Amino acid sequence: MEESDKALVPRSGLGNGSEGDYEPPTLSELQRLLWTNVNGGHVDQVWPNLHLGDAWTARDKSTLQSLGITHILNAADGKFNINTGAIYYKDMEIHYYGIEAFDAPDFNLSAFFLPAAKFIRAGLNTLGGKVFVHCAMGISRAATLVLAFLMICEQKSLVEAIKTVSAHRNISPNNGFLGQLRELDRALVNERKR
Questions:
Q1: Domain containing 77: what range?
Q2: ∠ CA 53-56-60 to the nearest 5 degrees?
Q3: What are the pLDDT digits (tens) for 112-167?
């Protein structure tokens, strides 16, 4: 194990062995994992058949068709964000789910973790399903929802989820979203211990 990774090992084995011992890495420890200088583009496959990207890709139907996208999760839905919606894709066979989220540390994105994870899972479980998750830039809101999916549906820790996505795309969830992911990580670890 690299020295820099030692601080990121879950501390679940420490303490008196009670259910509440696990503490996810601190925000500063998580931030060190995020920006990896990957040469990403407008859209990158970050998990098999799961693509993470930006508004440019969301509006480029030919790119979506060439990627074979069947499901789109817009984490920046609404008239003040990326206002595509299901109507925008009516000439395509796209299943659409929009979340009107704002990239603000005080926005409660965690309320959408489970519905978003279920939508992504359903898309990936569809025959030939390919899912595209986006926001404006594909680095904060959409990335947070992809991380939550990996944690909820693929049983990854927050650190494992970040490393998985960061290997393919630079991401940078805001501190509020990272805090919400830390809470999810803590809850999932404690639930799996039971």
A1: 45-188
A2: 105
A3: 999 999 999 999 999 999 999 999 999 999 999 999 999 999 999 999 999 999 99
> Does 75 map to a domain?
yes
Q: Please state the pTM of the whole predicted model.
A: 0.87
CATH assignment at residue 178: 3.90.190.10
Residue 153 annotated in active site? no
Orientation angle between helical segments 141-153 and 175-193, nearest 10 degrees: 0
Total of domains in the chain? 1
The catalytic position among 76, 135, 145, 159 is 135
The answer as to whether 25 is a domain residue is no
Residue 125: burial class (beta carbons within 10 Å; 0-12, 13-18, 19+): exposed
Both tokens of 28, joined, read: 């500063």
